[in-house]
Amino acid sequence: MTKDEAEKRIAKLREVIDHHRYLYHVLDKPEMSDAALDSLKHELKALEDRYPDLITPDSPTQRVGGGALKEFKKIEHRTPMLSLEDVFSPEEVEEWRERIGKVRSAAADAELFAEFKFDGLAMSLVYEDGVLERASTRGDGTIGEDVTQNIKTIEAVPLRLDIHGHVPAAARKTLEKRIKKGTLEVRGEVIITKKEFNAQNRAQKKSGKQIYANPRNLAAGSIRQLDPAVTRSRRLDFHAYALADDVGQKRHSEEHDIVKALGFKTDPREKIVKSTGELIHFRDSIAAEREKLEFEVDGIVATVNDNAVFRGLGIIGKAPRGAIAFKFAPREATTVVEGIAVQVGRTGAITPVAKLRPVEIGGVSISRATLHNEDEIRRLDVRVGDTVIVGRAGDVIPDIKSVVRELRPRGAKEFRMPRHCPVCKAALVPDGKILRCKNAKCPARHRETLYHFVSKAAFDIDGLGPKIIDALLDNGLIQDAADIFDLKEGDIAPLERFGEKSARNLVEAIHERRLIGLAKFLLGLGILHVGEETAGDLADHFGSLEAVKRASVETLEAVPNIGGIVAKSIHEWFGVARNQEFLRKLLRHVTITNPARKKKGKFTGKTFVLTGGLETMSREEAKARIREAGGRTSESVSNTTAYVVAGSEPGSKYEKAKKLGIPVVDEKQFLKLL
Ligand code: IVH
Fold first, then answer.
1. What CA–CA distance (Å, rounded) separates 56 from 79?
2. Using one digit for the tens of pLDDT, what is the confidence trace for 544-570?
3. Alpha helices in 291-422, H assignment, sequence order
4. Which pLDDT belongs to residue 28?
5. Is residue 600 part of a domain?
6. Does 75 map to a domain?
7. Which domain CATH number covers 588?
8. Which of 110, 144, 174, 423 is the most core-located residue (most Cβ within 10 A)?
C-alpha cells in the first residue's frame, strides 16, 4: 500500500470507527461486534504505526473511553479509572513479563493475581461513613456519570458496609475506622447473567422494543435508564475487583479478601499464580469453560500481586504497567477480500471462495472462506476489495458474516458466477442453489475424487494427502484411484520432499489398505450424496458390494434414512460403464472385509452431534466409536439429536442444543456413556 492509499484508508477507517463508536457507546445500539470494531481499530493502528506523521489528535486510536451522557450529573473520580492493556497470546504475556522485569526487577518473577475479566460496565462505588453515597460510571476515566439511584437497585451491591468475614490483620483497624468515619471506594463491574439477558431480550422482543446485542450492552443500557424502576426490572449483578483506598493491604489478593468481607462478590475462580505458565494455563482453562459460565467473561486480568511493586511499575498512557487483560482469542475479525475464485468439487459442485488478506481468528490464521453459492454472494453483496467481518462457524469453519459497506472501494463490481466450468469449460448446470459441472471426466473433479478416496473417512491412507496426490497426478504416476495400489517405492522416491525411507513408508501404508471395510470402500467411491452415514447404512443393510450394485432404486429407497434422490444417485453410479470398469480395476487390488457395523448397541437409534475439541480422542475416533456402538452422528443439532457432546470451546451447536433442550454432555460423561 502506498502512503497515498494508506492516507485514504486511514481517513475512511476513522470515519467508520467513529460512527460505530457513537452507535455503541452513546446510543447503546451497536451494529457491529466488539471484536469486529477492535479489528478495524487494529488495522488503523497498524497503518498509523507505519506512517506516524498521519496520526492526528482526533484519531480513535488517541483516546480511551467515551464522554458522560447529558442526562446524568457528572462526577469527578477521586482517582482516575484506568484501563488495561489487552494482550491475546502467550508470547505477548511473556513480553509483558520481561518488560515489567526491566522496569522493576522485583516484578520479573513476582506472583500474579488472576481473575475474570468481566464483560460489563465499570463502576465506582463511594461509601461515606460506611453508606453508599455515590456510584458512577467510568466515563472518560476522569469524569463519569452519577448513576447512584440505579446502582441502588442492584441487590449484589451493599448499601451499607459491614465486616462479615476474615480481613488481613494489617488492614482490620483502619477498615473498621473508615467504615465508621471516612471514605472507602470499591470498584467493580456491573454485569447481567446470560440467563437474564435472554429473558430480557425475549420480553423486549415481545413488546416490540429494541433487542440488545449482547449482555454488556444490556447492562450498560440498563444503568443509563432515567427511571430506576426500569433498572431494577433488569436484575443486574455486580462483581467487585478492587478497593481504591489504602487501608493497609499489601497485596491485590488481600484487597479481594477485604471486599469479600465487606459483602461483595468477586470472581469465584480468582487465584494467585506463581508463573507465567500457570497464568496461561488458568486463562486456557477459563476459555474452555467460557460458554458454560453464567455470565460473559472476555478474558482474564493479571495483576502483579504485591501492591508496592505494582505501584512502582507506574502508569503508561492510561493503563497501569503492572496489570494486563489477557483476552480470549476473538471469534471474529475484519479483513479484506482480495479475490473471489471458483472451485470445482468432487461432485462437480461449483463453489465460490473468497481469498482473504490473512487474519487471525480464534488463534489461527485464515486466508480463505467459502461463499457457498450465488445466493449467498447476493445476500451478503460481497465484492472484491470489500472489507468483511469474518468469523468461524461452529468455531471451526471460516465464515464471512457481513460486509462493512462504508469501506467499499469506489467502482467495486458485483461478482458474477461463471457459466462454464473454469477447468474443463463444460457448460454449468443449475442444481437447486448450486451450479454443477456434469462432465464426469473433468480433471478438477477427478482430482477432488482422488483426494476424497484417500481421506481419513474413506481409505485413510496414512501420509497420502492432497499435495502428494497432486504430485502423483502431475507426474503421470496415477490416472485413477486404483493405480495408487500399483505404486512402487522407485516411483515415489524421486518426487519432491520424498526419499527412499518415506517412499517405503508410503507404499506400506497403501498396502495396509488392501483390506478394507465395506462402508469405507463405498464412501471412497465418491458417489454423489453418499457421505459417511449413508455409506454405513448401505453396508449395514446390504452386507456386500454385490448386493448394493444389484439393488434397484426401490430397494435402495427401502433402506432407512435413504431417500429418493440418494437412491437414484447410487443406482445411476453403478450403471455407468466407466465406473464399472473402475470397480473391476480397483477390486483387483482391494479386498472388502468386515462388511457390516454392529447392528445393535447401546447407541442404536441415537444421533450424536459433536462440538468443540475433545481431549482424549480425535473427532474421527469419537465418530467411529459412536458408530461402533450402533449410533449415528450428524453435523447439525435438531429435535432428533439425542446428545450433543461438547468439548473445549464449543460453538453455536452448543447454544442451539440449549435452546432446543437437547441434553449436552461433556467428554467425561460421553466416555461414561460409551
Ligand atoms: S482492573 C487498573 N479487573 O476492564 C485497571 N478490570 O480495561 C482497572 N474489567 O473498564 C481495572 N473485569 O471495568 C479490572 N477483574 C477485573 C475486571 C476489569 C473487567 C474491566 C474494567 C475496565 C476494563 C479495563
1. 28
2. 999 999 999 999 999 988 999 999 999
3. 307-313, 374-380
4. 65
5. no
6. no
7. 1.10.150.20
8. 144
Q: Are the beta carbons of 149 and 76 closer than 8 angstroms?
A: no
Residue 63 — very low, low, confident or very high, per pLDDT cuts 50/70/90?
low
Nearest CA owner, ligand 1 atom 24? 83
Are 264 and 255 contacting, i.e. CB atoms less than 8 angstroms apart?
no
- The three three-digit cell numbers of residue 380, written as one number: 451478503
For residue 585, indicate whether it is catalytic: no
Its pTM stands at: 0.60
| 164: CB partners within 8 A, 6+ apart | 261, 262, 263
> What CATH number has the domain bearing residue 622?
3.40.50.10190
Q: Number of folded domains in the chain?
A: 5
Beta strands (DSSP E) in 348-396 are 349-361, 364-370, 387-393
Pocket of ligand 1 (CB under 6 A): 82-84, 115-118, 122, 138, 189, 241-242, 301, 320, 323, 325
Domain that residue 504 falls in: 443-593
Specify whether 541 is located in the same domain as 640: no
- C-alpha closest to that of 303 among 284, 328, 282: 282
Type and span of the H or E element at 43? helix 34-50
First to last CA, the chain: 56
Phi first, then psi: what are they for 369, rounded to 5°?
-145, 135
Residue 598 lies in a domain: no
118, 264, 307, best to mutate for ligand 1 pocket (most atoms within 8 Å of CB): 118
